[in-house]
Design goal:
The structure is a homodimer of 545-residue chains. With 545 residues, chain A is an alpha/beta fold. Chain A has 2 domains: 257 residues, Nitrilase/N-carbamoyl-D-aminoacid amidohydrolase (4-Layer Sandwich); 198 residues, HUPs (Rossmann fold), CATH 3.40.50.620. In chain A, 37% of the residues lie in helices and 17% in strands. The first copy, chain A, has a 6-stranded mixed β-sheet, with helices on one face. A 6-stranded mixed β-sheet of chain A has the order 8-9-10-11-14-15. In chain A, helix 1 packs parallel to helix 2, helix 6 crosses helix 11 and helix 13 crosses helix 15.
């Protein structure tokens, strides 16, 4: 049986556009004489449609698109993800389904059993879990169809009491097909590949695994669809971060050799690729092409500039320098050198007179000079307002350049440097940002060495350094990773070897800044635990005693 | 049996503080010789702790607090909500539990079966549903213990296949007790009261219903705990929007008369009370006392000023006028009159010179005068930056004054008038805002009549009116309510009698402004469908074709 693995980049909610892409690739599967074309989870509407699913007319349109596709399907069958109405009197109104289309009709519909509802996933918000198990019989084969999470219960630490494959195996399938919408994180690729191989081994069945690629706002999907032989060998592996198509000629009993391209867990390269895709899709899918950003002379804005240039092209990125009296000379020259290396224009707007006028107007109210944090924030917010004015005037989207370490401890000014439509590196710790810069320079030396070696500074007062108020970033990031990604208690983090009062201070900073993170742009997610929708903490409340 | 209904205002995550409140009220129950003191759902940690539940040390601390309380409990028993570890190898790691404490020990623990996971609820994110049903035997009675949603499956339109009460009724209870964490909406009180009465009738059992009160960030809880007789009569009803305590002397077979205080569904008064509580708790629970806000001369900022004064006291509210050349004379005089009526000070900062200086610095970059939307946004953002500077300097929290109609269509400037730590009326449509103002004036005439009768204007250009770019608010709000709260399709809304192209334009505005709403402050929730965590729409994607 010839099975086409169809790995596409869908736009959430764009039922019409997604249908056209599906039909286009289906024609290729037909022309290459595939028996079955497999698309990913919720392909019709893209993963994840979120609360669009609360609208009945949206789900009806998905079901109608499925019917329209079915009408076109002839000998080459399709297996494709789509939300469907459950029709249940009691229970959720929808299923997360995989529809089997053949010879003009929807022949069979399978539903997802295990509904991930944790971190960025909230499927039980919409869907009823499946409890009826059936096999797809096609071309003399018996196929166990499952949807994404349905195969993720293989370890004892998982979240479910049921196991759909345990039910399906009783029906004696000779092949597994899994339709997936599995998002990227730099720790996830190897885990996913390993887990799918273990599924093949456990059930002694070959596995066709089809994932989507592309970014939908904050969530990035990396593809990496696979055909895994029953011995746990990856016989075919599709591209990462790219649309791809491959036909697997599967014969029962045939032994396949390993054609995995062995994409490794080198986090820096993965994060780089994911973010470039994330920026590109954010712009393309919202109909924009051009970005602006504030270029401070520091590492973060330099990194975001390079990433934006790689994603959108040099002609589409406009960095703006907004120096103040506290900006050091190298901030200007380093920024200019970066832009020269990237062959992009750089603009400059002065903020000092504006800050002076703001403080002038405030002085009578304060009965005092404007100083301290208020003075620092005024500078950051003046930059924000100028960048937004340019954004308004030119129709460019402002990119936010805050990193994850800063976002964690609240080292940033709301409506100032926290402005922007998309947070590019808000899920990248400062120490990772350094490593990504080194990786970029190892490919092409564009980021001036001085940007990588000087001490980080917000330059909001004379001789300011980040280390005035924060520990060194390797220490800070160690504590943050333990707290945010490993859910460790303060005591447990101290046991890792960090100073007790430092740990408590850092955790307090994290807890106290939920209100800031609540108001920042969507963050391109590259780790297992990003700020944003995947981490919903109370804003008011006591978070650690 | 004497049952104490203990209705308290908990602070999320404040295990220590909540425990003290619980023990304090328990002592009252003891001194009034109650047999059983009933507290609300997740009382130990407050509802809802959200992702604090992902931290094992947090849940351990909750369990420890439960043990500590149990040690103190003697003859008067306690039934109280607390998260507990499930100890399951397969399945979620936690239960949403009700613990029965008596004579120094945790005697029995019940778990929630129906886990609301829709709108603002996401309980399946954390909890495993219960599937073991047991009865609490105490003082010769058999009590069916359930938790909140467990009783909400009475209608066929509900979300669940199971019915916990159907299981429990087989064990022949003579009383139902429901521990609840049921948030307020102005449409919800009557629904909840009716549903609980129907439960009593359906199962022919009296029902003790205990809810929490108080606001945790955006979610407001209104209390209204009840004792309902088996004939569906509300025999006792506790206060709304206030902590309360009442002992019900329940005798099997005794016929109780109606002591419901008949709190009616008059939305305007309910919304007023809920928002005042919401503001007060936001400040108290985050350790702040003072608020500032921008006072434009329009209806929304006038309403927020009154609400803030009622919540925090006149001495704790600082309105600031920030007029421009486009501000009309009445904007100043109306604002001054409002503040005089409220006996509060008002400050004034001029924005014109700052806007001029901003435009001065931008002109070379634009090769042009700054005009149009960019010019309008600069004014709004200059106001934002000034208000935030005052907030920084004085340690006051900035209140946001955007209403739901504006938030829906994106009629507001990010980092400008959308600034603020808390959105006070972001879930109140403009037409509702008018009605609340009329209600306030009917109690005490503080809002100048001219504010209520003049045409709404953002005053960002000469002679601007809201109706230049929006339909009349009664039409706009009608379309918005149908789309946001009733999930109607554009076609269905047109069938209500609205103009087709108008409906499409309004819906496009709603869809295109998800990115703005993503970055605004938490919104005090008063309707069944507020913007914020209860409505998670994709930002990038095609939302209606």
């Amino acid at each position: 049986m010839k099975i086409a693995l169809c790995q596409l980049n869908f736009k959430v909610g764009d039922i019409e556009g997604n249908t056209l892409k599906i039909l286009d690739l289906y024609q290729r599967a037909v022309s290459e004489e595939a028996d079955l074309a497999v698309f990913s989870e919720l392909a019709i509407c893209g993963y994840s449609p979120e609360d669009l699913l609360d609208y009945p007319h949206f789900v009806k349109a998905c079901e109608q698109a499925l019917l329209n596709i079915a009408e076109i399907v002839e000998e080459t069958a399709i297996l494709i993800g789509c939300p469907t109405f459950s029709g249940l009197k009691f229970g959720k109104k929808l299923y997360n389904s995989a529809a089997f289309l053949h010879k003009g009709e929807i022949r069979k519909v399978f539903h997802k059993t295990l509904l991930p509802t944790y971190n960025i996933f909230n499927e039980y918000r919409y869907f009823e879990p499946n409890d009826q198990f059936q096999i797809l019989e096609f071309k003399g084969h018996k196929i166990a169809v499952s949807i994404c999470e349905d195969l993720w219960d293989i370890d004892e630490t998982r979240y479910y009491k049921q196991s759909p494959m345990q039910k399906l195996i009783a029906l004696e399938p000779d092949l597994m097909i899994n339709l997936s919408g599995s998002p990227f994180s730099y720790e996830h690729i190897e885990e996913r590949r390993d887990l799918m191989c273990r599924n093949a081994l456990k059930y002694d069945l070959p596995l066709v695994y089809v994932n989507q690629i592309g970014a939908n706002t904050d969530m990035i999907f990396d593809g990496g669809s696979m055909f895994i032989d029953r011995d746990g060998t990856i016989a075919e592996e599709l591209e990462y971060f790219k649309e791809d198509f491959k036909i697997v000629n599967w014969q029962k009993g045939f032994k396949y050799s390993n054609h995995s391209h062995g994409y490794q867990n080198e986090d820096v390269e993965l994060i780089y690729n994911a973010i470039v895709l994330g920026i590109r899709d954010y712009f393309q899918k919202s109909g924009f092409s051009k970005a602006i950003l504030g270029l401070s002379g520091g590492l973060d804005s330099a990194l975001v500039t390079v990433l934006a240039v790689r994603a959108l092209g040099a002609e589409n990125v406009l960095p703006v320098m907004l120096p103040s009296v506290y900006s050091s000379g190298h901030s200007i020259t380093d920024s200019e050198l970066l832009c020269k290396n990237l062959k992009i224009d750089v603009k400059r707007v002065e903020i000092q007179k504006i800050v002076d006028e703001l403080e002038n107007q405030l002085k009578p109210l304060f009965n005092d000079e404007v100083k301290g944090l208020t003075h620092e924030n005024l500078q950051a917010r003046t930059r924000g307002i100028l960048l937004m004015a340019i954004s308004n005037k030119l129709g460019h989207i402002l990119l936010n350049t805050t990193n994850k370490s800063e976002a964690a401890v609240g080292y940033g000014t709301l409506y100032g440097d926290l402005c922007g439509g998309l947070s590019v590196i808000g899920d990248v710790y400062k120490t990772q940002a350094y490593r990504i810069c080194r990786y970029i320079n190892s490919q092409e030396n564009v980021i001036p060495e001085n940007i990588l070696t000087k001490a980080p500074s917000a330059e909001l007062r004379p001789d300011q350094k980040d280390t005035d108020s924060l520990p060194e970033y390797d220490v800070l990031d160690g504590i943050l990773h333990a707290y945010i990604e490993r859910f460790m208690s303060p005591d447990e983090i101290v046991e890792l070897g960090y100073d007790g009062s430092l740990v408590n201070n850092v955790i307090k900073m994290v807890d106290r800044n939920e209100h800031k993170r609540f108001q920042v742009a969507p963050i391109l997610r590259v780790s297992d635990k990003a700020f944003g929708r995947g981490r919903t903490m109370p804003i008011v409340g006591k978070l650690n005693s």
